[in-house]
Amino acid sequence: MATGPDSITLLDSLDALADWRAAQSGSVHFVPTMGNLHAGHLKLVEHAAQDGTAVIASIFVNPTQFGPGEDFERYPRTLAADLEALASAGCDAAWTPASATMYPLPEAYRFAIRAPAALADCLCGAHRPGHFDGVCGVVMRLLWQLRPERAVFGEKDYQQLLIIRRMVEDFSVPVAIDAAPTVREADGLALSSRNRYLTDSEREIAPALYRVLQALADEAAEQGPGTFDRLRRSGMERLASLGFRPEYVELRNAETLAPADGSDDRVFAAAYLGRARLIDNVAVTRQNRL
Ligand code: PAF
């Protein structure tokens, strides 16, 4: 067990983690991350720390959720800055396991979780096969290692949040999953570690993703389910005309991810700008505008 900047406790072995966990008198709250932290992550920590419960964040770039050709190798690793940011946000401990700690068995002997197709084969999952299986596998390992009472996930990764909620429900994992709202730059761009891949000119275009989603959500609220297919196609066209390479624009039910039907709907999109893959989502209500 080591003490990092501003007295955050740095835990990098299961023994150190067990000692720290045993020393906590009650429950702990958990914020899972892959590092390269920004203000959005720190909001998750603040949310987790609200009632004075000890907070632990994990920093682990999980190889099993990256597909071939994705950015696992070049995903930014910024541990020193991350520890400083976590400490200043009031995080008590950082869990920074090595890959061999998270995955002690060779791949052929490793247990895995298959996320259900109804939730995982649409939206991002349709374009990143196996991604949510990898996320479920690592989150389940982390929950088991840390045994938190509460874990906090951001709404920017809405599909991930929903899948984790259903996973803990299905496996009766004794943890509450909290959602924290998407944190945005002043111009509306959702904070993401991948925003750092944007060039200056791409950064100027990037906030338009949110504006297009807001407009689609307003139009969907006004015009009703009969127009959703047209709105979806129009969203793809609007993004392409602004310089994005849209992967998908979809209207889906917020609880089941089935095609939207006019109640509790959300608009979801993923689009590339250069080498940055941006995702965002907004609820279909009349109050979406900045
Ligand atoms: O959202 C993320 O950063 C990751 O998917 C998570 C939840 C930390 C699992 O690796």
Shape: globular
Q: Report the CATH superfamily of the largest domain.
A: HUPs
Order of helices and strands: EEHEHEHEHHHHEHEHHHEEE
Q: What is the straight-line distance between the termini?
A: 45 Å
Strand content: 15-25%
> Helix tally?
11
Strand order of the largest sheet: 1-2-5-4-3-6-7
Give the tally of β-strands.
Answer: 10
Q: Which structural class should the secondary elements be placed in?
A: alpha/beta
Task: Look up the CATH topology of the largest domain.
Answer: Rossmann fold
Low-confidence stretches: none
Keywords, please?
binds pantoate, three-stranded antiparallel beta sheet, Pantoate--beta-alanine Ligase, Chain: A,domain 2, 2 domains
Structure description:
- This protein is of the alpha/beta class and 290 residues long.
- The chain folds into two domains: 2-180, HUPs (Rossmann fold, 3-Layer(aba) Sandwich), CATH 3.40.50; 193-283, Pantoate-beta-alanine ligase, C-terminal domain (Pantoate--beta-alanine Ligase, Chain: A,domain 2, 2-Layer Sandwich), CATH 3.30.1300.
- 38% of the residues lie in helices and 19% in strands.
- The chain has eleven helices and ten strands.
- The strands form two sheets. The protein has a seven-stranded mixed β-sheet with strand order 1-2-5-4-3-6-7, with helices on both faces. The chain has a three-stranded antiparallel β-sheet with strand order 8-9-10.
- Helix 7 (131-146) crosses helix 8 and helix 10 runs antiparallel to helix 11.
- The longest helix has 16 residues, at 131-146.
- The radius of gyration is 19 Å and the shape is globular.
- The chain starts with a strand and ends in a 7-residue tail after the last strand.
- The relative contact order is 0.13.
- Pantoate binds at residues 32-34, 62, 65, 135, 138-139, 157, 160.
- Pantoate (PAF) is lined by residues 32-34, 62, 65, 135, 138-139, 157, 160.
